[in-house]
Design brief:
Blueprint: H1 3-31, H2 36-43, H3 46-88, E1 100-103, H4 112-118, E2 138-139, H5 142-150, E3 155-160, H6 166-180, E4 187-192, H7 203-214, H8 223-233, E5 237-242, H9 249-262, E6 269-274, H10 275-282, E7 296-300, H11 305-315, H12 322-325, H13 328-333, H14 339-343, H15 347-357, H16 383-398, H17 411-428, H18 446-476, H19 480-483, H20 486-504, H21 506-524, H22 528-551, H23 565-576, H24 579-586, H25 588-616, E8 628-631, H26 635-663, H27 670-689, E9 690-693, H28 703-740, E10 743-747, E11 756-759, H29 761-783, H30 785-799, H31 806-815, E12 820-823, E13 826-829, H32 832-839
Parallel strand pairs: 3-6, 3-7, 4-5, 5-6
Antiparallel strand pairs: 1-2, 1-7, 8-9, 10-11, 12-13
Helix pairs in contact: 1-2, 1-3, 3-6, 7-8, 15-16, 16-17, 17-32, 18-20, 18-21, 18-29, 20-21, 20-22, 20-29, 21-22, 22-23, 22-24, 22-25, 22-26, 23-25, 24-25, 25-26, 26-27, 27-28, 28-29
Length: about 850
């Protein structure tokens, strides 16, 4: 029983006992002439508990009603998704291929008497239950009647060989169940088990995550998981589990045991698997045999020769057409022991054969290969050689010129890209079948991505500081050369390092500081101030990276603290570079002391926290892209940023104080140090407190839609965080300015009188704009999956591995070519055997067909003036 049901039961019992006890107490008081007033007064304290029980029951009832409405909204989205997918996969073209099945061997299912015993308590008519496994056989649409009526427990295992049509049958069953579903009833949802790791995640949690990902309107990344779990707990989801055989062999027994635990015999479900792989869990070499509890099993049958012949001829245009006559040599061998006859017995092989050899509407057959070649037993000595040849020829056939949909990529380019994607899934992502665009970043070295991000932040920081300096110079009537020189450079160095470190990791912070200094040199030709600016960027980038990692919500458990000598050395080196900054601003003595003090602080921070910063550098919890913003104040980020700001501000204040004692020049007051600390804390809290939440539930979220939404949210995040971060700096410095009547920019060794430079409100605005723009960009980059996806695909396009317009390529491969299929927000190869075939590093040993050579980098063959409209996700 679920926790919600237990809570309702306890509340109901408590309410009944409370009401009964109060009524009994009053009756006893009347019976034995006790004082009624005193009795009622004694019972009054229990009224609150009664109200809570009553409110709990109402809330539970309302929650159940709300979940039913959510299920009613989810059902059309699921049906719409799979109707579209059935159309793309051409399941009904030229007509639905009749897949038949029979009862599987008795060892794969439970005994029929046990099934009837388990289902005795299930409401409904029992007159249509099958009398035994022999009555489970059927064809095509009868699978719905088998599942709903003939199997007493409504738990069914569908077994079959590779490409025998298991997934096709599951899709048809899902659509049929959606059509007969009543309001408030369970929603059939198909889950691909290939992405589930039973060792790392419980089945219920994994299914709840898949519901939230594919139907993101269930809620934000936190509450959406809770809603999905509630739907599962209240049995408002009917799981259809596809691809049990795609789970790694060492996990299958554990996975099946987890299914039995999470979905006991009273829960209807459907499970599909290859026959041999499922049989291995019943007779494992080691361990206890496991099978799905309370389930009947059916096995898909090979296609009959007359059905194969009729299907191939109908797809070629009809019985009397010349294209259909091309199949006569093959059809003559059907039903025999010829290799081609043994190969063409599954829906998958028929689909490949029709794609390779049958012309499309408006296309002639003169340039197509002839099906009679498949009858050559010298070239294809066995069925495996025929299957390998069809896999080799499938992608070039899918990308041959189409009269209705001109393709921007040649067959060789498409095959190269698909092979790279298959190898990426197989080797980089551990053999998963889910091709998610936001996981493409795994192909890009993390340090490289952070360095490029740091360069972007450094350039933006300098542009923002310089632009803001010119604006403030105009408003304040000051020399624009001074404000676009040292002050702008110092602000840019701080902004680039702090923003890069806090938002995108330690490497990005260090790179941002260096990039800003180099940008200043290239833009102005100066050498003195860029050196100081780079020193600021390195030091503050290191500190910002450590503070950003500590403020992140990344995983912490299972890691012991260790002193990090390497990060300690890096911290000391970056802190010591502030010699240039102190030398320019404060003089030789303060330079040496300040550099040593800052280097010591950075070295301690690197040694103590460097190990965690290295693990979480650039870490962002939850890889799924977001489509709307959600604000949640992050006290952890604020407190961590406040502590880091105090450490940096205290060090800087101490150095300027020492310089004041030695030379008599004014130093930064304590209030300015506190101002910087508060602004730093607010910046970290803001950068780590804004997150995203998904969109609407009324339609499934497709890959293209998700990418477009994630791209739009980038600008919103930049604007929102930038405004709040800039306001935080303006507020802190503005309060300090109002309290002490003025601020000091620094000790001006570059000035004529050696005095400190007084900061005006225009200077404060300068800093607020620069910090706001840079911190906002860093926060948007860290929260946004689009940026790293864009960076990765451009990197891979330059290498010639993938097309630059990857989104259009994947959509075309799915919508127009049929090479890919779509499940929720991810793409998959049409069949896992196709993925394995394309991922193979060597030419096929079975067919002897050599793989095509590496084409030139990705350049479209021609430019269309009327671009093909992007298919709707």
């Amino acid at each position: 029983m679920g926790t919600g049901w237990r809570a309702r039961r306890v509340g109901a019992v408590y309410l009944v006992l409370s009401v009964g006890g109060m009524v009994g107490a009053v009756c006893l008081a009347v019976r034995f002439d006790l004082r009624i007033a005193e009795t009622v007064a004694a019972l009054l304290p229990s009224v609150g508990g009664m109200y809570l029980s009553w409110a709990t029951l109402r809330a539970d009832r309302r929650e159940a009603e709300d979940l039913a409405r959510v299920a009613d909204r989810l059902a059309p989205a699921v049906r719409q998704q799979w109707e579209s997918e059935a159309r793309v996969r051409r399941l009904n073209d030229p007509y639905p291929l009749a897949v038949s099945w029979r009862a599987a061997d008795a060892r794969f299912g439970e005994s029929w008497s046990l099934l009837r015993e388990l289902a005795e308590d299930r409401s409904g008519s029992r007159t249509r239950w099958a009398d035994g496994p022999a009555e489970l056989g059927g064809t095509g649409g009868e699978i719905t009647d088998v599942f709903l009526e003939r199997v007493p427990t409504r738990r069914l295992v569908i077994l079959g060989g590779p490409g025998s049509g298991k997934t096709m049958l599951l899709i048809r069953l899902l659509l049929a169940l959606s059509a007969v579903r009543e309001p408030g009833g369970p929603v059939p949802v198909l889950f691909s088990l290939a992405s589930w790791n039973p060792e790392a995640q419980p089945l219920e949690s994994w299914m709840a995550e898949r519901l939230q990902r594919d139907y993101s309107g269930l809620g934000d990344p936190e509450t959406g998981h809770a809603v999905g779990a509630a739907l599962l707990e209240n049995r408002l989801i009917l799981p259809i589990l596809d691809g049990f055989d795609e789970i790694p062999e060492r996990f299958r027994a554990r996975a099946l045991d987890a299914v039995n635990s999470a979905l006991p015999p009273a829960r209807p479900l459907v499970l599909s698997s290859r026959l041999e792989e499922y049989g291995d869990t019943l007779a494992p070499a080691h361990g206890v045999p496991v099978k799905l509890s309370g389930a009947a099993a059916v096995e898909l049958s090979p296609l009959a020769a007359p059905d194969i012949a009729a299907y191939l001829r109908r797809d070629a245009g009809g019985q009397e057409t010349a294209a259909a006559a091309r199949w006569d040599p093959v059809i003559a061998l059907l039903g025999t022991d010829a290799p081609v006859a043994r190969a063409l017995t599954t829906p998958l092989m028929l689909f490949l054969a029709r794609t390779v050899y049958n012309p499309r509407p408006g296309e002639g057959d003169t340039d197509l290969p002839r099906p009679a070649n498949l009858c050559d037993e010298v070239r294809f000595p066995d069925a495996a050689a025929v299957r390998a040849h069809l896999f080799d020829a499938y992608v070039p056939a899918a990308y041959r010129p189409h009269p209705g949909y001109p393709c921007r990529w040649s067959a060789a380019q498409a095959e190269q890209a698909l092979r790279w994607l298959a190898r990426h899934l197989q080797h980089t992502l551990g053999g998963t079948t889910e091709l998610a665009w936001w996981q493409l970043r795994r192909a890009l070295p993390r340090r490289f991505a952070q360095m490029v991000t740091g360069v972007v932040l450094g350039v933006v920081a300098w542009v923002a500081a310089t632009g803001a300096g010119r604006l403030t110079a105009v408003f304040a009537g000051l020399d624009s050369g001074w404000l676009t020189g040292p002050p702008a450079a110092m602000v840019a160095g701080l902004a680039g390092g702090i923003a890069g470190g806090i938002g995108c990791g330690l490497v990005a912070g260090l790179t941002g500081g260096v990039a800003e200094g180099l940008t200043h040199v290239l833009a102005t030709g100066q050498l003195q101030w860029p050196a100081a600016t780079t020193a600021n960027g390195l030091a503050y980038g290191f500190v910002g990276g450590i503070i950003g990692a500590l403020a992140s919500r990344g995983p912490e458990r299972g890691h012991r603290w260790t002193w990090d000598h390497r990060m300690c050395a890096v911290g000391f080196g970056t802190g010591a570079t502030l010699f240039f900054s102190y030398r320019v601003n404060h003089g030789a003595t303060a330079a040496a002391v300040g550099a040593l003090a800052t280097a010591t602080v950075c070295a301690l921070a690197g040694g103590v926290f460097g190990h965690r910063a290295g693990r979480l550098s650039g870490h962002r919890p939850g890889a799924i892209p977001t489509v709307r913003t959600r604000w949640a104040w992050d006290w952890r980020g604020f407190s961590t940023g406040l502590a880091g700001g105090c450490a940096v501000g205290l060090t800087h204040w101490a150095v300027t104080g020492l310089q004041s004692l030695l030379s008599g020049a004014p130093s930064y007051p304590v209030s300015t140090m506190l101002t910087f600390s508060c602004a730093f804390g607010l910046t970290v809290g803001i950068a780590h407190g804004l997150s995203g939440k998904p969109a609407d539930l009324t339609a499934p979220t497709g890959p293209v839609t998700l990418l477009e939404q994630d791209q739009r949210i980038f600008a919103r995040l930049w604007l929102a965080v930038g405004l709040v971060a800039g306001a935080a700096f303006l507020l802190c410095y503005g309060i300090d300015y109002a309290v002490q009547g003025g601020l000091y920019y620094g000790l001006g060794r570059g000035t004529t009188d050696g005095r400190a430079i007084a900061m005006t409100p225009a200077h404060i605005l300068d800093r607020g704009l620069a910090y706001g723009i840079t911190v906002g960009l860093a926060a948007a980059l860290s929260q946004n999956a689009w940026w790293y996806h864009t960076l990765t695909r451009h990197h891979l396009a330059m290498r010639g591995d993938l097309p630059r317009d990857l989104t259009a390529f994947l959509s075309d491969a799915h919508e127009r070519r049929g090479v890919l299929r779509r499940t929720g927000a991810v793409h998959q190869f049409r069949h896992i055997d196709l993925q394995h075939h394309l991922a193979a590093p060597e030419p096929s040993q079975e067919s002897g067909v050599a793989r095509p050579g590496r084409p030139r980098p990705w350049v479209p063959r021609r430019r269309h003036t009327d671009r093909e409209p992007m298919p709707r996700a």
